[in-house]
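FORM 12-B: Structure-to-Sequence Request
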Protein backbone atom coordinates (compact mmCIF):
# COMPACT_ATOMS: atom_id res chain seq x y z
CA UNK A 1 0.00 0.00 0.00
CA UNK A 2 1.11 3.58 -0.44
CA UNK A 3 0.17 6.80 1.30
CA UNK A 4 0.36 9.54 -1.33
CA UNK A 5 0.66 13.29 -1.06
CA UNK A 6 -1.65 15.70 -2.91
CA UNK A 7 0.37 15.28 -6.10
CA UNK A 8 0.25 11.48 -6.02
CA UNK A 9 3.85 11.07 -4.84
CA UNK A 10 4.43 8.24 -2.31
CA UNK A 11 5.03 9.51 1.22
CA UNK A 12 5.03 6.13 3.00
CA UNK A 13 4.90 2.60 1.60
CA UNK A 14 3.30 -0.08 3.78
CA UNK A 15 4.28 -3.66 3.06
CA UNK A 16 1.75 -6.09 4.52
CA UNK A 17 3.56 -9.36 5.22
CA UNK A 18 1.52 -12.51 4.94
CA UNK A 19 4.05 -15.21 4.10
CA UNK A 20 7.26 -13.52 2.88
CA UNK A 21 8.98 -10.73 4.79
CA UNK A 22 10.86 -7.98 2.98
CA UNK A 23 14.12 -9.53 1.80
CA UNK A 24 17.43 -7.92 0.80
CA UNK A 25 16.39 -7.50 -2.84
CA UNK A 26 13.09 -5.85 -1.95
CA UNK A 27 14.87 -3.58 0.57
CA UNK A 28 17.00 -2.36 -2.32
CA UNK A 29 13.90 -1.74 -4.46
CA UNK A 30 12.32 0.26 -1.61
CA UNK A 31 15.50 2.16 -0.70
CA UNK A 32 14.32 5.44 -2.23
CA UNK A 33 11.16 5.50 -0.11
CA UNK A 34 10.07 5.62 3.50
CA UNK A 35 8.56 2.21 4.19
CA UNK A 36 7.33 -0.01 6.99
CA UNK A 37 6.38 -3.66 7.09
CA UNK A 38 3.45 -4.91 9.14
CA UNK A 39 2.18 -8.43 9.80
CA UNK A 40 -1.12 -9.20 8.06
CA UNK A 41 -2.36 -11.18 11.07
CA UNK A 42 -1.86 -8.20 13.38
CA UNK A 43 -3.68 -5.91 10.96
CA UNK A 44 -6.67 -8.24 10.96
CA UNK A 45 -6.64 -8.49 14.76
CA UNK A 46 -6.61 -4.72 15.35
CA UNK A 47 -7.50 -2.35 12.52
CA UNK A 48 -6.60 0.72 14.63
CA UNK A 49 -2.91 -0.13 15.10
CA UNK A 50 -0.04 -1.06 12.81
CA UNK A 51 2.62 -3.17 14.55
CA UNK A 52 5.85 -2.44 12.69
CA UNK A 53 7.99 -5.52 11.92
CA UNK A 54 10.64 -3.76 9.84
CA UNK A 55 11.28 -0.37 8.27
CA UNK A 56 13.61 1.46 5.95
CA UNK A 57 14.48 4.93 4.74
CA UNK A 58 12.81 6.65 7.68
CA UNK A 59 14.44 9.85 8.97
CA UNK A 60 15.88 9.93 12.48
CA UNK A 61 12.98 12.06 13.73
CA UNK A 62 10.76 9.00 13.33
CA UNK A 63 13.05 6.78 15.41
CA UNK A 64 10.62 7.06 18.32
CA UNK A 65 7.92 5.41 16.18
CA UNK A 66 10.24 2.48 15.49
CA UNK A 67 11.13 2.14 19.15
CA UNK A 68 7.44 2.01 20.03
CA UNK A 69 6.99 -0.50 17.17
CA UNK A 70 3.49 0.74 16.47
CA UNK A 71 1.74 3.40 14.48
CA UNK A 72 -1.76 4.81 14.87
CA UNK A 73 -2.25 3.31 18.32
CA UNK A 74 -5.31 5.16 19.55
CA UNK A 75 -9.00 4.55 19.85
CA UNK A 76 -11.41 5.50 17.13
CA UNK A 77 -13.94 8.08 18.22
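FORM 12-B RESPONSE
SEQUENCE OUT:
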Amino acid sequence: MALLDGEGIPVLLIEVCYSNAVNVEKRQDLSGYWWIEVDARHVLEDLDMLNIRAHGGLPRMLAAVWEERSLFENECI
